[in-house]
Write a structure and sequence with these properties.
- This protein has 329 residues and is of the alpha/beta class.
- It has a single domain, classed as TIM Barrel (Alpha-Beta Barrel).
- The protein is 30% helix and 16% strand.
- The chain is built from 10 helices and 12 strands.
- Strands 7-8-9-6-5-4-3-2-1-10-11-12 form a 12-stranded mixed beta sheet.
Length: 329
């Protein structure tokens, strides 16, 4: 198992397939973009599959989520999904995407073995989408959501970040729209993971503000007394259900105590926390001929040193050097 000194066991693996993205979201990266990883530094398709196999068969991982950057930009994505779906025991496979390429890939990914998707959508207004992402692709995201639902990648979940003064008035409209279309909406507090290091706590729309806004139009009932265990989202039934809405309060109500995640970056580094400032290099071992058992042992050592929490409440907190696009969601 991937056990740490606080008794937590990591069973959820986030695999970043690329640091590249075809949007330039203001809370993630600058308009001019970032310097991408050199292609030789990226894990190959076969190396990614091997790392997932080690995680699943040797380390007890049960859930694998492919992230980026934008994972749909990875040419070998369907092949990677198919190979991971063939593992025994079979892990649950999901994908976090901006949705732009799902219109043409959702059916193939479902056939390859992908179970479900999370799609980022912060606004229903095309003009606000252009401001937030610096791209005119709102229609492509909506088409991607429809394709994902049609392909059976259910439940289709939507991740939304509210930005003060831009889309913070849209929470009720977004939820009404998601309920109408059968999507599960999850609001995420903006986290200090932007490349510009411009995040400020005072500018963040908090979970309490989001819930207050939603309650102006909906009756929200805590699902299971919001007992989320290791799940990041606290969930509520909307108007008695069955529709649900989630809020991920990573900053104001962190779930570090029950965290069950381990992360693999596109260049083969293990991160035991989203906000960690240290990484453990598995790519070097992989490419130097290390056996699976050796790589597994290095992975266990990396997770054993996981800190108690993210440190967001510590006045001395410093953002990771890598932004979210290079870490993986």
């Amino acid at each position: 198992m991937l056990l740490d000194t606080y008794g937590r066991v990591a069973t959820d693996l986030r695999v970043s397939l690329t640091d590249r993205c075809n949007l330039r979201c203001t809370y993630c990266m600058p308009e001019e973009g970032l310097r991408w990883l050199d292609r030789p530094d990226l894990l190959t398709d076969d190396e990614i599959v091997r790392m997932v196999r080690i995680a699943v068969t040797d380390l007890g991982v049960t859930d694998v989520r492919f992230t980026g950057g934008e994972p749909l930009l990875r040419p070998g994505l369907a092949r990677i999904v198919a190979a991971c779906a063939a593992l025994e025991p079979r892990p649950r496979l999901s994908l976090t995407s901006n949705g732009i390429g799902l219109g043409r890939t959702a059916a193939a990914l479902r056939e390859a073995g992908l179970d479900r998707v999370n799609v980022s959508l912060d606004t229903l207004r095309p003009e606000v989408f252009r401001t937030l992402t610096r791209r005119d692709r709102h229609h492509d995201v909506l088409a991607g959501l429809r394709a994902a639902a049609a392909a059976g990648l259910a439940p289709v979940k939507i991740n939304t970040v509210l930005m003060r003064g831009l889309n913070d008035d849209e929470a009720p409209d977004l939820l009404a729209w998601a309920v109408e279309h059968g999507y599960e909406l999850r609001f995420i507090e903006q986290m200090p993971l932007d490349a510009q290091h411009g995040w400020e706590r005072t500018g963040m729309v908090t979970a309490e503000e989001i819930l207050t806004s939603l309650r102006t139009r909906f009756h929200l009932t805590p699902e299971g007394a919001t007992a989320r265990a290791s799940a990041p989202a606290e969930r509520w039934l909307v108007d008695g259900g069955p529709a649900r809405v989630g809020v991920i309060a990573s900053v104001t109500r962190p779930f570090c105590r029950a965290c069950d995640r381990t992360r693999l970056t596109a260049d083969g580094q293990v991160r035991n926390c989203l906000f960690a400032r240290e990484e453990s290099d598995l790519r070097a071992a992989l490419r130097s001929g290390a056996r699976d058992t050796e790589i597994a042992e290095r992975w266990r050592a990396a997770m054993w040193g996981k800190k108690a929490g993210s440190g967001l409440d510590d006045p001395a907190f410093r953002q990771p050097d890598r932004p979210m696009s290079a870490i993986g969601g």
